[in-house]
Design goal:
With 178 residues, this protein is mostly helical. It has a single domain, classed as Helix Hairpins, CATH 1.10.287. The chain has 2 helices and no strands. The longest helix is centred in the N-terminal third of the chain and has 101 residues. The radius of gyration is 41 Å and the shape is rod-shaped. The two termini are 49 Å apart. 1% of the residues are buried.
Length: 178
């Protein structure tokens, strides 16, 4: 009888141990699931960081392209300015020539007056074109700068969102594994 009680005690002990083992296995499964969830969240976070890096690289490339465009427009504006100076010098030379010819007679004076008027109109037309080109270039430059500011602002917002998500994940991880 004593053996039976001893066996029942062993059986009860084994049963308790199996129950504890089952409970530990369940806890282990739960922790493994949590680990897998955290690994998935980490992979998603890495994907988001890669997208962020790609967006940042794209923005930097756009900024570089914008700077290149700005330099091109600046050179174009400089060329237009030099062209205007050249035209003004030619205009000044033509005017001097006309004044000399005007001194030679009234008929020549009338002809030269008409040429001068034509050149003045041409100069005004060129100056208007220059002003329009300059205004257009300045508008394009302002637009590019505005776009770059918006992109920089969006990039900063995305960076803050990612940082907050990272902080949240870190807090969750710390809470789960402390």
């Amino acid at each position: 009888m004593e053996d039976l009680e001893f066996n029942q005690e062993k059986f009860q002990t084994l049963r308790t141990l199996f129950s504890e083992i089952a409970e530990l296995q369940q806890q282990l499964k739960d922790k493994y699931k949590t680990k897998v969830d955290l690994e998935n969240e980490l992979a998603e976070r890495k994907r988001i960081e890669e997208e962020f890096s790609a967006a940042k690289a794209s923005l930097e490339e756009q900024m570089a392209n914008s700077n290149t465009e700005r330099e091109r427009l600046s050179k174009e504006l400089e060329h237009e300015t030099q062209e205007r100076k050249r035209i003004e010098e030619e205009f000044s030379a033509a005017k001097a020539s006309l004044e000399e010819q005007l001194a030679n007679g009234n008929t020549e004076k009338e002809r030269l007056s008409k040429e001068l008027e034509h050149e003045t109109q041409e100069r005004k037309r060129i100056e208007e074109e220059f002003s329009a080109t300059k205004a257009s270039l300045e508008e394009q430059l302002a637009k590019r700068e505005s776009e770059m500011e918006v992109m920089a602002s969006n990039l900063q917002s995305e960076r803050q969102t990612l940082k907050q998500a990272l902080d949240n994940l870190q807090q969750q991880f710390n809470t789960l594994y402390k």
